[in-house]
Design a protein that fits this description.
Layout: H1 2-15, H2 31-36, E1 47-54, E2 60-62, E3 70-73, H3 74-87, E4 91-97, H4 106-109, H5 114-125, E5 130-135, E6 148-150, E7 153-155, H6 157-173, E8 177-180, H7 187-197, E9 206-211, H8 218-224, H9 244-256, E10 260-264, H10 270-279, E11 284-288, H11 290-301, H12 307-321, E12 325-328, H13 331-339
Parallel strand pairs: 1-3, 1-4, 1-12, 4-5, 5-8, 9-10, 10-11, 11-12
Antiparallel strand pairs: 2-3, 6-7
Helix pairs in contact: 5-6, 6-7
Bound molecules: ligand PBG and zinc ion (ZN).
């Protein structure tokens, strides 16, 4: 009888989850046990690599604030896509820098606009590559804003038509995914309708849903030559202080027909990614933006951090928070590290 009691007591003690019966270090003892219980993995096919395309040939201009990233002409870009594809990159995101900017963003929607030309050539040479077209007007407008401007204000509804027109032109060129980054209200529905009417009902939309007015975009604006010529983007991009509002933006984009929702930037907004994960079953993308990239590159160049470890840790954190896809300028380096 006594024996039975002791045995039962021991059993209970063993199942009680605290020290010394429970020791968290048991499963951390060797690389094999650690990888056995690892919860989060980085896969190359979840990374999206951005390109900045300019007119001309044989151009490859470094962007000073983004070491390793260039403004390049289509021929140079095709070479880099070839290398990226061989390294295991399966999807890319395209931004265009037109020779001439104007007040109607014609470079965004003309058939021979820089991104549309690039898409045709990429799809011809690399049909398997997932080509995502960023849909916005700031790179193509002389004033650098993401919509039509009148009397110093960014107009919402008139901008929808021109955004939709750009999206259709990108789909006609062969884009696999349309990614609107402008933050006008109602753009997802407008673009969805226009795509459907033009016969592109199968082309998915990856919506920049929760895009914050972040100071971390400034290296990108050097790359895309898209800094606003007056004012800022606070009247259309989100206040970094607002989490609930981000969830409303995501809800609205889902209602309007988004296939993938995006949160941008990534690292300072992991709480939004995590909450979005609980809210929707749609794929979630996170944009690890230019400033996030530049900070890591600068610290690494100074020898202050181990670049490879910091990048892999950061991207793993973004996946752990709930992102399915990550847009990142580190993608090519990661491809090298994961293979090596
Ligand atoms: C333009 C656009 C921006 C980024 C992606 N699309 C900049 C902006 O809104 O000013 C930022 C990307 C990055 O910083 O890497 N609509
Ligand atoms: Zn824009």
């Amino acid at each position: 009888m006594n024996d039975m009691k002791t045995l039962a007591k021991e059993r209970i003690a063993q199942s009680s989850p605290s020290y010394p019966n429970m020791r968290m270090r048991r499963l951390r003892a060797t690389p094999a046990t650690r990888s056995m219980v690892r919860e989060t993995h980085l896969h190359l096919e979840k990374l999206i690599y951005p390109f900045f395309i300019v007119e001309g040939t044989n151009k490859k201009t470094p962007i000073s604030s983004m070491p390793g990233i260039f403004q390049q002409s289509i021929d140079s870009m095709l070479q880099e896509i070839d290398q990226a594809a061989n390294a295991g990159i399966t999807s890319i995101l395209l931004f265009g820098i037109p020779d001439k900017k104007d007040s109607e963003a014609s470079g965004a929607w003309k058939r021979d606009g820089i991104v549309n030309k690039a898409i045709r050539e990429i799809k011809q040479r690399f049909p398997e590559m997932v080509v995502i077209a960023d849909t916005c007007l700031c790179e193509y407008m002389d004033h650098g804003h993401c919509g039509i401007v009148a009397d110093g204000r960014v107009l919402n509804d008139p901008s929808l038509q021109i955004l939709a027109r750009s999206a259709v032109a990108q789909a006609e060129a062969g884009a696999d995914v349309i990614a609107p980054s402008d933050m006008m209200d109602g753009r997802i529905a407008a673009i969805r309708n226009a795509l459907d009417e033009a016969g592109f009902e199968h082309t998915p939309i990856m919506a920049y849903s929760a895009k914050f007015a972040s100071a971390l975009y400034s290296p990108f604006r050097e790359a895309a030559e898209s800094a606003p010529q007056f004012g800022d983007r606070m009247s259309y991009q989100m206040d970094p202080a607002n989490g609930r509002e981000a969830l409303r933006e995501i809800e609205l984009d889902i209602q309007e027909g988004a296939d993938i929702i995006m949160i941008k930037p990534a690292l300072p907004y992991l709480d939004i990614i995590s909450k979005a994960r609980d809210m929707t079953k749609l794929p979630i993308a996170a944009y690890n933006v230019s400033g996030e990239y530049s900070m890591v590159k600068a610290a690494a160049a100074n020898g202050w951090i181990d670049e490879r470890k910091v990048v892999l840790e950061s991207l793993t954190g973004i996946v752990r928070a709930g992102a399915d896809l990550i847009i990142t300028y580190h993608a090519r380096d990661v491809a090298r590290w994961l293979k090596g």
